[in-house]
Design brief:
globular; alpha+beta; three-stranded antiparallel sheet; single chain; 13% strand; 46% helix
Length: 110
């Protein structure tokens, strides 16, 4: 997997631990469409895995190329808190992008 460096405002970067702590306290209750979508939130294409099945892997859309981290919900069970606690800042930000893509997709459906 390749990585890119990004610049984000300091206030957003400093907010990551706060948001992460709240997500952990909430047991990571996020829509399954964010944590482990079967279809792309942007174009509706099928999401395909590109790594070994572990708690967290990377999937991308076969139609448009959109990609995001995917949680293997069967391995994680129902409490996402410990899984979120194990995430690095980059993976947690990628999950935030996935949540935004989900919301954009939902807004476009209306």
């Amino acid at each position: 997997m390749e990585y890119e460096g990004v610049r984000i405002p300091r206030y957003a970067y400093d907010s990551l631990p706060i948001v992460k702590a709240r997500a952990i306290a909430n047991k990571g209750r996020l829509p399954e469409e964010v944590l482990s979508p079967q279809k792309c939130p942007l174009c509706g294409g099928k999401m395909q895995g590109t790594g070994a099945p572990v708690k967290l892997e990377y999937h991308e859309c076969a139609s448009c190329g959109y990609g995001q981290p995917i949680f293997n919900l069967e391995q994680v069970k129902t409490d996402m808190g410990p899984a979120l606690a194990d995430l690095g800042k980059g993976a947690f930000m990628a999950l935030g992008i996935a949540a935004l893509a989900y919301l954009v997709g939902k807004a476009l459906e209306k």
